[in-house]
Design a protein that fits this description.
- The complex is a heterodimer of chains A (257) and B (256).
- With 257 residues, chain A is an alpha/beta fold.
- Chain A contains four helices and 27 strands.
- In chain A, a hairpin with a 4-residue loop joins strand 26 and strand 27.
- Chain A folds into two domains: 3-138, UDP N-Acetylglucosamine Acyltransferase, domain 1; 197-249, no CATH class.
- An eleven-stranded mixed β-sheet of chain A has the order 1-4-7-10-13-16-19-22-25-26-27. In chain A, strands 2-5-8-11-14-17-20-23 form an eight-stranded parallel β-sheet, with no helix packed on it. Chain A has an eight-stranded parallel β-sheet with strand order 3-6-9-12-15-18-21-24, with no helix packed on it.
- In chain A, 16% of the residues lie in helices and 26% in strands.
- With 256 residues, chain B is of the alpha/beta class.
- Chain B folds into two domains: 3-139, 3 Solenoid (UDP N-Acetylglucosamine Acyltransferase, domain 1); 198-250, Udp N-acetylglucosamine O-acyltransferase, Domain 2 (Up-down Bundle), CATH 1.20.1180.
- Helix content of chain B is 17%, strand content 27%.
- In chain B, a hairpin with a 4-residue loop joins strand 27 and strand 28 (188-192).
- Classes of the chains: A alpha/beta (257), B alpha/beta (256).
Amino acid sequence: MNNIHSTAIVSKKAKLGDNIEIAPFVIINDDVEIGDNCFIGPYVTINDGARLGNGVNLYQGASISHIPQHKKYANEPTLCIIGDNSIVHEFASVHRGTESGKTVLGKSVLLMAYAHIAHDCRLGDHVIISNACQLAGYTEVEEWAIVGGCIPIHQFTRIGRHSIIGDGYKVGRDVLPYTLAAGEPLGYYGLNKVGLKRRNFTEEQIQEIKQVLSVIYDPNLNVTQAKEKLVNEYANNPFTNEFIEFINKSKRGIITR
Amino acid sequence: MVNIHPTAIVSPKAVLGENVTVSPYAIIHENTIIGDNSFIGPKTAIYPYTTIGNNAKIYHSASIGHTPQDLKFNNEITSCKIGNNCTIYEYATIHRGTAASGETIIGDDAFLMAYSHIAHDCIIKDRVTIANWTQIAGHVTIENNAVIGGMVKIRQFSRIGKFCMVQGGRSVAKDVPHYILAGEKNLQFGGLNKVGLRRNGFSEEQLNVLRQIYTFLYGSNLNVTQAKEKILLEFPDDPFANEIVDFINQSKVGII
């Protein structure tokens, strides 16, 4: 049983689950699917291509699956997928994919007020994007990463899992998993210790991660040399492969010390 | 007599004062109080447990008293209280408190410009101006008559002193003591907020005392502890000296 306010405009073609509350002045277009137990706040607009999981909360004025800000986009049907229990705060905007692509937000993602997620971005589970962050197209933010307030992120950038970025800095290169990034220009500031402890990483694992990072950020080695050293000397470290793969996939290079 | 547009949705459990105007498509929830002569702009939403004083001007699409962005928040009943004569511009957002303090408080004569954000449990005192896009995290205190420039980010638990001015575009990650201008690259002491203090009727004599106090703090080789001692030694009964030393003593995150 859904509770739809009389002033909301909901397309008959939209597929709605059960126990959904739709607040006043909401607009929901044709090609939209919404799971169970969702709350759609006042003045929210959900455009074609939106696929919402269960328990999603969208607050005042959020704009979901909007046409991307990309000049090559020619109205092809693309998707904007938002995972279970995600929360989108006031006036945040999430655009759908371009070409045949999709924009994906994982489960339990928190987008704070005024955040912008552009076309073809991928956000993993439990990601937090703070107020007024602006993510350009194709940005990838892996699970449990936290992006501080008011941060612009360059297109094609990748933010590794369990990393954290300080408020107000600019992100133009990839941030390695498990790290803390801050400064101008953005640099490596050590491990995201608080985050790793909160998520029950053991002291042993933290030491292993530290060991790999001390090689990658060794001032006497460039990135290629660091990778060689990791393969030759730290092959038994369970985190070595993850870091090497992350660096190899990087399109924009990683942040420096 | 209230003037409510037919498309606006006003809960019968909302309490509206005399001569309130509610514009088209505005939503006013239950358990809200709006004072006399207030104007609620189009598409504005006022959420439960919000109290707004008299003569408020709240413009297009503002969001007042929304639930906080704190993951610890568990739907507890908390409040958002705004004093008299506030002016709140388009798309500004103000969240209500969490269990931590139970309330978000904004004093009288607040002037919040477009897209500004006041998070849960903030205390914004009287006659504070906050310019466009400034984002204020949770538990921040801003004292009387402070002016925060545009696009400023203020970290949680920070405190901004009275009659201060924070320059636009800066990041505030530490407390800003009373009466000063905070600017420069990594938020630093940038002299007294002379223009603001004069406008507010401070005398040249008072400015001189403040200048001397801050010289001990920022213009000498003393560390903060030594500077505090020196300030109290030189100005033992001066209200400014005691006020500024108290400010430093109460700081949770250190001063700039």
